[in-house]
Amino acid sequence: MLTQASPTTTRDALAGLIPVSIVTGFLGSGKTTLINRLIKRPEMNRVAVIVNELGEIGVDNDLVQVSSEQMMLLNNGCLCCVLRGDLQETLRELFIKRRNGEIIDFDRVVIETTGLADPAPVVQTLLTDSMLLDQYRLDCVVTLVDAVNAPGQLGEFSEPVKQVALADRLVVTKTDLIAEQPLAALTGRLREINPRAPLRSATNGEIELSFLVDVGLRRTQADLEEIERWLGADEDHEHERGHVHDETVQSFALRFDKPMSWTAFTQCLEVLTALRGPDLLRVKGLVNVEGRSGPMVVQGVQHLFHPPLELAAWPGEDRGTRLVFITRGIPRQTVAGLFAAIGAVAARSGSRFPERPARDRPN
Amino acid sequence: MAVAGSMRPGGPADHLILNMKLLGHNELAGFGGIGEGINMQKTRDGRRILWLAHESAPKNFTAVDVTDPGNPKMVIQTDLPHADVRSNSLDVVGDVMAVAYQTKKWGLKPAGFDLFDISKPEQPKLISHFDTSGPCSRGAHCVWFADGEYVHLTSGAADFEPSHPKDDQFYRIIDVRNPSRPAEVGRWWLPGTRKGDAEPPLPRHPRFDGGYRPHNTNVYPQRPDRAYLGYIDGGTIILDISDKSRPRLVTRWRHSPPYNGFTHTVMPLFNKNGTMIVTDECVKDAGEDWPKLAWVVDGRDETNLVPVATLPLPPVEVFSKRGGRFGAHNLHENYPGPCSWRSDHIVLGTFFSGGARAYDVSNPLQPREVAYFVPGTPRLAPKGSSQINDVFVDDRRTVYAVDRFGGGVYCLEMTV
């Protein structure tokens, strides 16, 4: 498929952008171990990894081809570089150096965040910085959860909860160090906070690259599978409806069959962000906008949203607006009520995206 | 500060690449120096033949079978009669190919253009030669042949004596409807450039006198009554050729001086923004004549062309030091033929050591670089870097970029 020539005379707004994966997780959750394992893989040959400190990732000298204070090129072609100043600066500099031929022609970036960091600003940077938007796209937020310490941390600190809430992928580490029952409890807890992100466990940072990449939309001609991969599957219906166990973070989906005007949609979001911006942890979805042939892709973190992007066509028959919300204390009814009041659209009962029978689908 | 290339495993032999995928490469049997003539023929037996004009002697033109761009195969390579002539430019319409000939000095032959029957690509057959040699002529530098009826030519002529030696070529329209008897039907030169003109000779460029003569003379089916000329130091010229026997000046946009001249290609995109792309050719090594730019021009009012942006290039500080020239040159010209890709949004250009680069000009005020390919330095490269000279995109969206010296042809897939 890749070599198939396309006669199209326009550019796909997503296809040319370099995907960025963010690896986050609380202190001791094993980010460094995971990065250390990851960068040695042969398929990392065109990946630039942004780390907090080169020394920390502990790569054997034998594996290093060239190194400077700021960068290290491994024998497999993987480039590690230190986060300098802020992320914007580092990502811009990386692209400039790539263009100048000073570093490898990386085609993917992996960012390791600091353990204490709130990942929201990192995601926001990628969604809203106009210079970065020309070159990069957010592919995936991967959150590492330390099976031993997370149960305590999740109750004690707000950052780990937020890290879990924002994730597209969850990786539970150190699972070999705890018993089955507490592990099940932890998994249940993670599912409450974020029921949509696929979850894997990893010991000693061993995890396949494919779990961590190609989650975000790669092209505007995305098919249903790609859309669902990005939005997250309903792996656990119970928890989706549930979320009663958790007082703070909730995840729900809204679905509207009727197309809405772009103005109405943006007004809803504006009201929501103005009143509850900090509690709107993550929003993503497709919107059926009146008069548009393809769905509008929406994604945001707290009060900042990616510039709207129209897909080339609807993937599949289903033309409904589907929005996924992860919030801190904003219940589904509030958001649905807002859309009903401002957008004059009613959310369907049942928040999931069931495959509807063909006869129910609008033409 | 990292040393350039140090964080690249392959060093200078490595390609710089963004949103392009190298499918195939052919060094053309050691004669990999290609000029600015690339065009494609679909043969009756279904092959795609890429025709390439060489930059200089000893080779004339080379045909490469690119039916599978992953495996470009040379079909034929021809020789020039002597070393003081170059072909440089060609175009293909159906099974007929026009090839330009320009000599190093006035008075030499062959000068002008040939028409070949290429129905059998392995055996091009000469149909006719149109002679433009003369006491003050080097012959033809560039052909534009798209409608099968007229060759729009940059050439001297036996009866043309320039007021300055560098102004020895002008615009000529040659009727080739009878390909065995090409005949001139019209001509135009910038007033003042021919000895005996009523107008005085034009002032020379103070630093880089490239002369006043056309380079590319493009005519598109969307506007068959217009010729778009890059006129070297004369800038951008649009002619009304509704009466081919009497081309008339519609507009002339000069930006040199203060810029450094050598306007090369004028390409209208015929989109709703009236966008035109104008390139100035870099003709000096090591950044001496920088900036040589590709301009985005608002041509909604053709009598008042307004430059609104330039295609962004990587830093001159880096690329002028790679060796040879760095700056604008040729474009993929949205050639009207059936084998050519055409886009009024995406523009591809060549920039010598800056390689082949693609831009999205949907917003003409903010053109965006969306892809590039800078080949690693070819073996025995005389300038120390690749010097990408011309680019052509076929209707499958396969990109062909050619090196001016030894690199040959690179076949690429653009993934934006």
Description:
The complex is a heterodimer of chains A (363) and B (416). Chain A is of the alpha/beta class. Chain A folds into two domains: 18-212, Rossmann fold (3-Layer(aba) Sandwich); 224-354, CobW-like, C-terminal domain (Hypothetical Protein Yjia, Chain: A,domain 2). Chain A has twelve helices and 15 strands. A nine-stranded mixed β-sheet of chain A has the order 3-4-5-2-6-1-7-8-9, sandwiched between helices. In chain A, strands 10, 11, 12, 13, 14 and 15 form a six-stranded antiparallel β-sheet that branches. In chain A, helix 5 crosses helix 6 (158-166) and helix 11 (262-276) packs across helix 12. The model of chain A is unreliable at 1-6, 235-245 and 350-363 (pLDDT under 50). Chain B has one domain (11-414): Methylamine Dehydrogenase, Chain H (7 Propeller). Helices cover 1% and strands 41% of the residues of chain B. Classes of the chains: A alpha/beta (363), B mainly beta (416).
Please sum up the structure shown:
The complex is a heterodimer of chains A (363) and B (416). Chain A has 363 residues and is an alpha/beta fold.
